[in-house]
Amino acid sequence: MRRSDLKVGLFVLMGLVLACTVVFLLGGTRHTFERSVHYQLVFDDVAGIKQGAPVHMGGVHVGQVVTVDYSKDAGDPRVYVKVRIVAEAARRLRTDSVASIVNKGFLGDKMLVVTKGSAEPLADGGTIVSEEPADFIAKIGEFGGEAGAAVSEVQRLAKSFADEKLHADLRSSVKRVDQ
Q: Do residues 85 and 63 touch, judged by C-beta distance below 8 A?
């Protein structure tokens, strides 16, 4: 093998390493080379959260969702979510910390939000208490029921204002004030 072939090979290898580094730095991957801790969350419904979804605590990006899967036990209907949180942020997790799934934006992307908590520190690899995501369709149904009740009340008021006896009483009251 010639010396020039070795130089070309090393140059290409350095270029590939540099390209991979740029992809990691420009991509959405954060905390790639930092020490991290894995935790587990358990939900009845994950509302569409996916592997790679961000994990925030106090508005700061502290990790990401590693896996979303069912238990190996076919009788267990719950969904298990494994997250990776940067060790520096994991120190702030407590046994009363609560994780919830929220919308990341208007397009339906999801993310996990974890509260800091104030109790005892949560052990590495522990289970973070999870809060079931709000059922958006159910919320719309509740709002629709409330809106329907409000419309009924407005209709009842409109009927009372359309009453001829009320109009006659108002006319006579105005005539008395004019005199």
A: yes
Return the C-alpha torsion angle 117, 121, 124, 126, nearest 10.
-60
The closest of 135, 136, 132, 129 to 115, measured between CA atoms, is 129
Work out the number of other CB atoms within 10 angstroms of the CB of residue 72: 7
Distance of alpha carbon 28 from alpha carbon 63, whole angstroms = 11
**Confidence category of residue 25, pLDDT binned at 50, 70, 90:** low
pTM summary value: 0.59
Q: Give the Cα-Cα-Cα angle 53, 57, 63 (nearest 5 degrees).
A: 40
Spatial CA neighbour of 97 closest among 120, 68, 67: 120
- The pair of structure tokens assigned to 115 is 């509260």
Question: Measured between alpha carbons, how far is 152 from 114 in angstroms, rounded to an integer?
Answer: 41
Q: Residue 59: left (phi > 0), alpha (psi -120 to 50), or beta?
A: left
Question: Distance between CA atoms of 78 and 94, rounded to whole angstroms?
Answer: 23
- What's the rounded Cα separation, in Å, for the pair 148 and 138? 15
Answer positive or negative: Cα dihedral of 119, 122, 123, 127: positive
